[in-house]
Amino acid sequence: MNVTFNNKVAIVTGAASGIGLACARLLAASGGCVALVDCQPDHLAEATKNVQEKGTARGYELDVTDIRSIASTVSQIRHELGEVDALVCSAGTNIRKPAHEVTEADWDTVLSINTKGLFFCNQAVAIQCMIPRKSGAIVNIASTYGLVGGPKGTTAYCASKGGVVQLTRQEAIDWAPYNIRVNAIAPTYVLTNLTRSLLTDPEFKTWVLDNTPLHRLATVDDVATATLFLVSDAAKMITGVILPVDGGWTAR
Prior knowledge:
There is one protein chain. By secondary structure, this protein is of the alpha/beta class. It has one domain (about 10-245): Rossmann fold, CATH 3.40.50. The chain contains 8 helices and 7 strands, in the order βαβαβαβαβαβαααβ. It has helices at about 20-30, 40-50, 65-80, 105-135, 155-175, 195-200, 200-210, 220-230; strands spanning about 10-15, 35-40, 55-60, 85-90, 135-140, 180-185, 240-245. The chain has a 7-stranded parallel beta sheet, with helices on both faces. Strand 4 (about 85-90), helix 4 and strand 5 (about 135-140) form a beta-alpha-beta unit. The protein is globular and about 50 Å long. The mean pLDDT is about 95.
């Protein structure tokens, strides 16, 4: 089956780098018009140019923790690009501390981006674009650590991604009457700016590979390909699913 995104509009958050950029690039290359959303203007401008080499794209500066600005940004995207068919929420962060050292500020930083900001992006797009048209697909980028425990230092991150997993399932139920499909992808370790310091440590990388049955890291393109499938018509009967892209990590 030829999976495409022809003549459709997508919003991708966290699109200036890593998984978000890969998703934006593939959606544009597959025929879509992509709104790249990120809080880093310089990186966003560069990423937008990169995606425009593949297809149609425009950049929009937004910090997803600025809840009041989410709805107005979605409205601007609708006005400039057209009704939104798909949303990919990839913005995320982590503060690595063991549970007994996590401060309230640490907790709020991680949860406000990974869970709260994600939810209100989902909600704004659903309210403005998808519920009225009774059509749409949302993909939230979760993590294997939303499904299983992680190594020391991932307490807030695990909580935030576990929240993404349950939000995804509940939104799929709540919005099914409007023909809105909501799914999540749970990647294993992917080499991005968020994980680079870990994965350049030979001992840690060996630990990851030894715990991955396919014995390799995931790539941003592995995640992007799964995302394209889930927002495409090829997945029109799939909702409420958390799809691990993890080389077998959660099957152990």
